[in-house]
Amino acid sequence: MIRKPTPLFFEQGPQAVILLHAYSGSSNDMRLLARRLEAEQYTVLAPIFTGHATGDPADILKEGSPQRWWQDTQDAIAFLRQRGYQQIAIFGLSLGGLFATRALQMDADLLGGGTIASPVIFKGQTNVPSAFIEMARAAYKAQHLPSEALAQRLAWVQAHLGAQLTAIQAFADTTATHLDKIKQPVFIAQGDADQMIDPRSGKWLADAYPTNQIDFHEYAGAGHVLTVNAAHHALETDILTFLHTIF
């Protein structure tokens, strides 16, 4: 039995960091980074977006939406504040970065944060649709579904995926239009071998900020999921350095 991912919450010091996962991912995307931050005495919360990590990829399309995930993000911030945390930073991987960026726009009390391989500036090529279908195919195959049931489920996912990706792009576009509202320091990480989104996405985003303190890092030879691939040690170190400047 494969254990389903659960939200991560590691309580340590008074400074807290929220980590938001990717579109077809879960809090597992953030475990290595969360453990490194915990070891440095940060409190870390990595929630799971609605519809994710249920065992059925279709739930992302049925239960999730940009509005729902934005609510999940606000709930995570509120959860930490209810527990007494005042010093909070927020980061997101890929899709999660859209919501981390929106949070910095809407909540001036957050001290800073940023994006990891996130298409806030939504242009260039994307392999998100095909990657989502492949993720769904692998998930259903692991359940040993009969071929007809597998085909039906994949057909449903393919029929409904486009509408959600369009809604995500609209959310990204709105977020990108209001970057001038963000006054906090911003961290941006991008792998130059990203095959999921355009590898120029991080630089486009860094250049789009008007006047902020932008801490931009590009990782040579690194693919999309920087939190777990060969760049993860460097990313963790760079985020820790950034946190020292904002807390």
Q: What descriptors fit this protein?
A:
alpha/beta, 247 residues, globular, 8 helices, seven-stranded mixed β-sheet, 7 strands
Unreliable runs: none
User: Mean pLDDT, as a whole number?
Assistant: 96
Shape: globular
Radius of gyration: 17 Å
Main beta-sheet annotation: 7 strands, mixed
DSSP strand content: 5-15%
The class by helix and strand makeup works out as alpha/beta
Q: What is the H/E string?
A: EEHEHHEHEHHEHEH
Q: Portion of residues in helices?
A: 40-55%
Please report the total strand number as a whole number.
7
Helical element count?
A: 8
Report how far the terminal alpha carbons are from each other.
41 Å
Question: Going across the major beta sheet, what is the strand order?
Answer: 1-3-2-4-5-6-7
Give an account of the 3D structure.
The chain is an alpha/beta fold and 247 residues long. It is 46% helix and 15% strand. It has helices at 31-39, 58-63, 66-82, 95-106, 128-142, 147-177, 201-208, 232-246; strands at residues 8-10, 15-20, 43-46, 87-93, 112-116, 186-191, 214-219. The chain has a 7-stranded mixed β-sheet with strand order 1-3-2-4-5-6-7, with helices on both faces. Strand 4, helix 4 and strand 5 (112-116) form a beta-alpha-beta unit. The radius of gyration is 17 Å and the shape is globular. The protein starts with 7 loop residues before the first strand and ends with a helix.
